[in-house]
Amino acid sequence: MTLKYRIISIGSSILLLCLLWGCQSSPEFSREISGTVLAVDSTVAPQKDPAVDSIIGIYRGELEAEMNEVLAHSAHHMEKASPEGLLNNFVADLVMEVGESLYDPEDGSAIDFCLLNYGGLRTSLPEGPVTRGRIFELMPFENEMVVITLTAEKTRELFDYLALADRGMPVSGIRLQVSEDLTWEAEIGGTPFEPRNYRVLTSDYLAGGGDNMTFFLEPLNEEYLDMRIRDAIIQYLQQADREGRKISSELDGRISQ
Q1: N or C, which end of the chain has less CB nearby within 10 Å?
Q2: How many CA atoms lie within 13 A of 133 on its CB side?
């Protein structure tokens, strides 16, 4: 491959050349560069390196064994839906439960409710055995659990967001009734919404304004629980299996329209 280019003197260079050569036409410089195009694809290495492949094979086998580990058994198939779904409720409730066990603020206040996002649930859970690999498919992100303290105004914006949402956001600890004109009535922990600060358990992705949840920005307080949401799910399933329980969920009208 041959490339040619010209560098034309301009600006201050013209002024300098005019002084040196009586304003003669600016000279042109030319340089020729040659090179070879090298394709970087499978044709460069058409055969596997046996030594490298054997090393990879060891870790591949270990990873497959880990991902095929059965963590728990489900009493029924669970998938997400709107305005609520079995999977929505299951994940939000278990995250709330695990979050409450981890949260220990100095003032002794509790988490008021949990809000996650519909798009964060990437697959369903089957009836029967649930493997570790399935949980990685369900929650492939490294999102961490965080408690955000919101003012009453920002909490009101949160419920406005839920009332307008066209998908059922996973929630726990609240009941939200949305009317046809998109006004709403909310209960938090069995108590009607009131003008006070609320502590919301969510993901660090949403806490940063993900999914246009801008009401989480500039919170009164932000407290990380040092637990990934995926790890919370795995921990919950393992505990259920140790106790001989099948995991399950139900629709309870926590969001109704």
Answers
A1: N
A2: 9
Each domain of the chain, given as residue ranges in start order, spans 2-34, 64-256
**Pairwise CA distance, residues 200 & 142, whole Å:** 19
Q: Which residues contact 154 (CB under 8 A, 6 or more apart)?
A: 215, 216, 219
Using an 8 Å Cβ cutoff, are 72 and 237 in contact? yes
Which tokens belong to 178? 């949305």
Is 64-256 a CATH 3.15.10.40 domain?
no
Please check the confidence at residue 25 and state whether its pLDDT lies above 50: no
Residue 141 tokens, joined: 């992100």
- Model confidence at 60, in pLDDT bands (50, 70, 90)? confident
pLDDT-above-70 percentage for the chain: 78
CA 183 to chain centre: 29
What percentage of the chain exceeds 90 in pLDDT?
72
- From 245, 250, 235, select the one nearest 98 (Cα to Cα): 235
pTM of the model: 0.78
